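Action item from last week, closing it out:
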Amino acid sequence: MTMDLKELEIKALFVLGEDISNATDEDLIAIYRLVDKETKAASEAFGQTLMPFVKLMAFVQSELHKRLNERKATNTRTDAGLAYLHHAESITVVDRAAWFKFVHDNWEKAQAYLTAAISKDAVLADLRAQKKPDNVPDDQWAPTLPPGLKSEVFESVRIRKS
C-alpha cells in the first residue's frame, strides 16, 4: 500500500477515533476514499492469500467427483467426513415470446411458474414516458404505476474521485 504523509495523517485520525465533526467536507471525503482504497487493497491481498487454498479445494472436489463416477457411487463416507454428488438444475427463458404465449394460453397451470420479480428499468422508462395532462397542476401530478406495484425512493451519499 502506498500512502503519502497526508494519507497517513488521515488514517491516524480515523484509527484513533479522534473527533472529526469539525473536519471539512474535503477531509471527510479524503478519509472515506482512503479507507475505501485500503479496504479494497486488503480485500485483494486477502483474496490472493486464499487463492492457493481455493484452487486446492476445487482440485480435491474434482478428484472426488472423478472417483465417485469411476465407482458409479453417489457418495463416499470416511472418518474425515462425507463427499456426495449433488444435482442442481437451472431453468431459464430462452424464447420470451413463446414463454409468454404459453403462460397466456395456460394461465391456470402457468401462474404457479411466475414470481413477482419485475424489470425496474422497464417500469421507470414507462413512468418517465407518461405525460402530465395540461389541466393538472405540476404539484398535483405524478406518473401512475401499474396496479400492484409500489415505488420507494432511497437516498444515500456516494463518494468518488471527481
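Closing note: The chain has two domains: 5-84, 96-140.
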